[in-house]
Amino acid sequence: MKKQLSLKLRLLLLSGVAVFMTTSCMFMPPKDTKETIKTEAEEAEDGTTIYKKDGLTCVWHDEFDYEGVPDTTKWKYQTGHGNDGWGNQELQNYTDNTTTADTAVVEEGVLKIKAKYENGEWKSARLNSKESWKYGFIEARLKITDRKGAWPAFWMMPDGRADWPDCGEIDIMENAPAIENCDHRVFSSLHARGHFAANPKSIGGKTYDENLSSEWHTFGIKWTEQEITCYYDDVAVGGYENNGTIEDWPYDQKFYIILNLAIGGQLGGTGFAPSLGGNAEFLIDYVRVYQ
Ligand SMILES: [Ca+2]
Which of 35, 63, 183, 230 could join 236 via S-S bond, C-beta 3.0 to 4.6 A? Predict the structure, then answer.
């Protein structure tokens, strides 16, 4: 739940924030499919690697196999504090890393989003892909620090068409250990007019893994005209089907990818932010889109 709300909607939800805080873990049980999809890698004639998944071919990716600022042909920045902390009372100021790597830096084959407390304020980064896609398999390999106060996310928003929540939102991975009983868990959920705020639709439930922060994990969705299925380490952990209504299925338009590390806020837990000691990190090994 990261998109800024319209004023009208914020007023509507003002008294509902406490409800959201206590009910945000009450997702629908995920559909237990246990389907596994492996990535295949082939070498092309020019020596580059072609990645394939579920009969689809990688059409866009960033492996972060370079050094310095993130690739400006692929990423742009959303900056500032947002309205009311991006609608969620988040603490951080997002900065631009187009020319100087500071809160987003590529090194050792990895994109590192770094939240830092400096001069009495948190700063961090929010990267949006310049391209957007409709349908396919979208995945990232991530390492999450799983620390109370931090709220890393890998998610998607549409290019336009309507205000949130009518436009839809696809949250592939959100980690919110500050929420009660959500330690070592990641959320995968969908928002739309028919299901938002305290009532998102689960696509991957709140996946539990004791090794969530100690190991790298892949997070992905298989998105078709009929269904969005969520994968954790290539195993399907839940899905949501198209019921044919615009209120519940605005997922028939192009969405772009977002990577960000928020501090505090409704899911990060503002009261826990000081316990981070002024630093938090969110690591991304790669992001791939297969179609
Ligand atoms: Ca990499």
Answer: 35
